[in-house]
Amino acid sequence: MFSKVSGPVRLADRVAAILAEEIESGRLAEGGKLPTEVELVKQLGVSRTVIREAVSRLRNAGLVEPRQGLGVFVLPRRARPLDLEAESLGTKSKVLQIVEVRSALEGEAAALAATRATPDGLDRMRQALDALDAAVAAGGDGVDEDLAFHRSIAESTGNDVLVSTVRYLGEVARGGIRVTRANEARRGDFIEAVRQEHHAILAAVEARDPEGAHAAARLHLRHAEARLQDADAGFWTENGDLDVDLGPAT
User: Fold this and answer.
1) How far apart are the C-alpha atoms of 28 and 35, rounded to whole Å?
2) What pTM value is reported for the model?
3) Which residues is 67 bridged to in the sheet?
4) CA distance 209 to 214
5) Distance (Å, rounded) from C-alpha 163 to C-alpha 84?
6) In the beta sheet, which residues pair with residue 235?
7) With 50 as the cut, is the pLDDT of residue 249 above it?
8) Which H helix or E strand runs over 74?
9) In this predicted structure, what is the pLDDT of residue 116?
10) How confident is the model at residue 86 (pLDDT cuts 50, 70, 90)?
11) What is the pLDDT of residues 40-60, one digit of tens each?
């Protein structure tokens, strides 16, 4: 089944990777047994110590389960971690799907921020929005500043999971922000509408109005979707092959 392993990378790492690939591909099926330790030593050309360390890593990853006197069995596959970088994000349909996800996430983040934000948190939101306005006024695309504004809202919730999720979405899908902002830059009324929407979110958070903040954030994303729908085919031909961003910006 296997060929001998050699090279500068730690042998246990390479053996674990080989076995994991066999499991992920289905060649080693759920409920099936790995070859015996002796067989793996012979096929891979490594020591028993290397095999044991590799199997230990697979066990820690939840891929296999050693059973005393019976062997090492492949466990049912767990749900894969979210990996948006593996997705094809540079299409109109994917960008619009991303906007839907952001709408749910950022609406709740704004509502929580309205009830939980500290004075320092409010200051960070104001500063982030001022920086975004300044970047746009100076002719910049405002992508980094847009990310920072929405991230400051999430940070004000005090929910570390929410903060990590918003940060992840922003960083792995940064191109989508460029797509949405490039679309909005086509027209002056779009630029002004986006500015007003951002300020409406902040105003509701400052007013300690969770329902208003939730509504403002959701409205912002609904309008972002409508603006994207309005873009003609030529826009997508020029911009649709970007690495799309889930991140907080429109």
Assistant:
1) 10
2) 0.61
3) 71
4) 9
5) 17
6) none
7) no
8) strand 71-74
9) 97
10) very low
11) 999 999 999 999 999 998 988
